[in-house]
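2024-03-11 09:14:02 DEBUG pipeline.ingest accepted 1 chain
2024-03-11 09:14:02 DEBUG pipeline.ingest length=419
2024-03-11 09:14:03 DEBUG pipeline.predict start
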Amino acid sequence: MSLIENRAAVGPLHRHVSLRAALGADQQALPMVADMVKTLRPSEPLHCIRPAVISGAAQAFSAAFNGDVLYAVKCNPEPAALRALWEGGIRHFDCASISEVTLVRRLFPGAAIHFMHPVKSRPAIREAWVLHGVRDFVLDSFGELEKIGQEINASDTGAAEMGRPGLFIRIALPETGAVINLSKKFGADFETAVALLQAARPLAGRLGIAFHAGSQCLDPLAWRDAIALAGEVIRASGVHVDVMDVGGGFPAAYPDMDPPPLGAFMAEIDAAYDRLEMPWLKLWAEPGRALVAGGGSVVVQVQLRRDGMLYINDGVYGALADAGALNFRFPTRLLRAGHSAGAPDAAFGFFGPSCDSLDVMEGPFILPDDVGEGDWIEIGQLGAYGTCLRTAFNGFDRAALVEVADRAMLEVTGEFQPV
């Protein structure tokens, strides 16, 4: 398997870089990022996937959570990341589109795929059910319940073994303090959720209730309160519910965000589950960011320095969307083109490569004060949404991807001087 491959999340827009010429055809071990920069001296963004970090995070989450772990594919659909998750024991995948369903089924024929987008097209429902063996569907409205029932019945050729679908009613949550409140877009209110559970029970092979605390939710008590609310909905419905899906939103660490340890979230989930007194209820979770954030970075090159701003060859239309719209800060380290003079650290902002004046990342990003044109910078904690949000805007769509042996960037310090 080649260590570097085209990025395919957006489309076949990115050039292929081969390691065989650079490192030799018999190269087996994964390289380090520093060695890749020494060898390739990349003039375009280089995405770095850390399979061991991703596998380790998957194993840790699965060991801590008392239920099935469904990876949220939207967070990072790169095959290299998905393979690392599989190596870490993930066998369930939360998909939001038929393209994600197709990708997972192609990579892992035996995977359990769950279609967890509350609003799906009719062809997507039909294809997922008939061609890919998807049996679980989430919804938050009567319109979607009707749509799922009609499309499954229309596609049923009489094969009894296809069974009945798993139907999951997603409820809206009050504000949790998450960076992105997903209940503004999805989720049924209390009364609607009760009615949906009652209507879906006769149709469902298994019936579930689901929620999402919001992206990058730092408060473990959000899950305590959400589980209690879901329990109230179940009791008010008076029907038997098989599964409670506690969603995603589990946070990752960033330079200005230090979430509680994973154990704090699991302790609240376990305690809230016990208080439900519904021992038959199976738990699911849909982590994304918590599994892959530390497993990715991008190496960029400085094209110009203007006072405290660095013009780099990637930006908000590339891997750094969250650094723009959400003002996320990411760990950085200098991969220097020349010799370091041991300069003190300073704070910088970034301008991306496009001609759009919105292509700016305020940071601050901490780097040696003498950083300048030609230097490389590795920007870490980008395993979540760093590759999949790239666009071809302004023609800056060329990038490469390499699997590396490095640890997560928040554990990496210091500078590097290529030989």
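2024-03-11 09:14:41 DEBUG pipeline.report The longest helix spans residues 221-237.
2024-03-11 09:14:41 DEBUG pipeline.predict end
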